[in-house]
Specification:
With 402 residues, this protein is an alpha/beta fold. It contains 12 helices and 17 strands.
């Protein structure tokens, strides 16, 4: 096998897919995989969704790129629809979640600077967080494995333990600009922030003049059964980063904000060459056509409940493998007694795609259009994967007895 010309920063599975439809992927050699990874929560409407394909094909025949030097009607429409459906009053379009977080961080700092307090730039974040791979976002996430070897950590982030309110209060001082949190930690192991704690964070920010920034890159766009996960808590942020599902597979990100929180962002303070690209805006609008349709999110809630019920049954059948089922909607995790990579590989042998995460968790992130039958099929394949792991666990004991 010849070496790849691609930078070796990924440990890629030995699978190459050539086509997909709905919740299914087909390899070059004809195998059919049930996709409960969805491109890491990106393919919100599955593969080759006809409405998305039509929107992209139609736009591709008209206009690909114009830059942000000119008016952008499709971007204006998508921004208006996002504002109408959320707390937001303005939107900045990016190409990724990390870029959306960069915009959010700059926006929060600029907010205080234009109000005469430029030293108020620090942001409180939480252990286990993942906000992206740029120098600022790895500093915000604070995980040593992502920081090592890249020089001094970007200044301005104060990390506290997940769920430790006393540490949080102690970290908030006169130089604190904002609190940044994922309503559900994705890479951190599908760890939801309880609704009452999100409400506490909102009150804390209000009391101390801080901004609340939510990272809904993985938990947003219907993933938990609400358009955005924070809606379960009945609160609204000041700034929110969005990506992944909003493009349904096309690179789209967005930073949403209130007019007050974004008041420091004037012409020249930020920008993106490709952000708001006509192709991206066409797909983003097509995604919202589907996700905002009557009954769609209700269906996600129903299928999410069904998935958790099936996984709870698996936990009861395989207590030596599965320790806990956690998550909300179609953002679900299995915390394991065995190494999570073992279950990922065992599931792959059953032609089921799942993803590892922190806290020894395996993530299940099926497309939001997944059917009841596909959930049942995924559970059956996971059942066989767990049986294979249990058999492997018994093998050393049999060999010792022999």
């Amino acid at each position: 096998m010849t070496s790849s010309s691609m930078l070796p920063v990924y440990a890629r599975a030995p699978l190459a897919f050539e086509s997909g439809e709905g919740a299914w992927l087909r390899t070059e050699d004809g195998r059919r995989f049930l996709d409960f990874a969805a491109g890491i929560a990106v393919n919100a409407l599955g593969h080759a969704h006809p409405h998305l394909v039509e929107a992209l094909r139609d736009q591709a025949g008209k206009l690909w790129h114009i830059s942000n030097l000119y008016q952008n009607p499709a971007g204006e429409r998508l921004a208006r629809r996002l504002c109408e459906a959320t707390f937001a009053e303005v939107v900045f379009f990016t190409n990724s979640g990390a870029e959306a977080l960069e915009a959010a961080i700059k926006m929060a700092r600029k907010y205080h600077a234009v109000k005469g307090d430029p030293d108020r730039f620090r942001i409180v974040t939480f252990e286990g967080a993942f906000h992206g791979r740029t120098l600022a976002t790895i500093a915000a996430g604070g995980q040593p494995k992502y920081l090592e070897g890249f020089g001094p950590k970007v200044e301005g982030f104060d990390q506290v333990p997940f769920g430790d309110d006393e540490a949080l209060k102690a970290a908030c001082g006169p130089n604190t600009a904002a609190i940044l949190i994922e309503p559900v930690q994705g890479e951190g192991g599908i760890r939801p922030v309880p609704p009452e704690r999100l409400r506490f964070l909102r009150r804390l920010c209000d009391e101390h003049g801080m901004l609340l920034i939510l990272d809904e890159v993985q938990s947003g766009v219907g993933r938990t059964g609400k358009l955005f996960s924070h809606e379960w808590a009945g609160i609204a942020p000041d700034i929110m980063a969005v990506a992944k599902g909003i493009g349904g597979g096309f690179p789209v990100g967005a930073c949403l904000a209130t007019r007050d929180a974004s008041s420091g962002m004037k012409p020249g303070t930020h920008g993106s060459t490709f952000g708001g690209n006509p192709l991206a805006m066409a797909v983003g609008n097509a995604v919202l056509d589907v996700v905002l349709a009557d009954g769609f999110l209700d269906q996600v809630q129903r299928t999410g409940l069904l998935l958790k019920q099936r996984l709870a049954e698996l936990k009861d059948r395989h207590p030596a493998v599965i320790a806990e089922v956690r998550g909300e909607g179609l953002m679900v995790g299995l915390r394991l007694h065995v190494p999570n990579v073992d279950l990922v590989k065992a599931a792959e042998q059953e032609e089921l795609l799942v993803i590892s995460a922190g806290d020894n968790v395996v993530r299940l992130l099926p497309p939001l259009i997944v059917s009841d039958a596909e959930i049942a099929e995924a559970a059956a394949r996971l059942d066989r994967a767990c049986e294979a792991l249990e058999a492997a666990m018994r093998q050393p004991a049999r060999e010792a007895a022999a």
